[in-house]
Amino acid sequence: MPKAVANRFNKSHEPPVTKASTKKSGGTPSTPGDRAQNPLFNTERFGQHILKNPQVAQAIVEKANLRPTDKVLEVGPGTGNLTVRILEKAKNVTAIEMDPRMAAELTKRVQGTPEHRKLEIVIGDFVKADLPYFDVCISNTPYQAY
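User: That's the sequence. What structure does it adopt?
Assistant: Structure tokens below.
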């Protein structure tokens, strides 16, 4: 099981704090566009948008036409709403997550289930990672809109 460590990321991954953003909120930086933040995770830091709709997750998996022999690469699994559905259909899943807090949450989610043996979590940037062999790549792609 992967160990999520906070020191793997440096200040360059955090959005810049401007004087205008600190004035609005009385000294604490505001989020871009003053959008509501996820209460469990500061998802704005990596431009994350958590997939919450189970019907969308199911539709993504169905459109992938997964077979029981497929090795799946998932980019940005977040809390695992899509991952758990992929694990039901595929041979194994390699999930690449940039945020160690999300990786820890995903680890907790599958811990103690039969699927945990089919999951490998890589903490890091997908663009910079050495990718393993895979048959199918699935992602509810993380994005950052400014």
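Strands lie at 71-75, 92-97, 119-123, 136-139.
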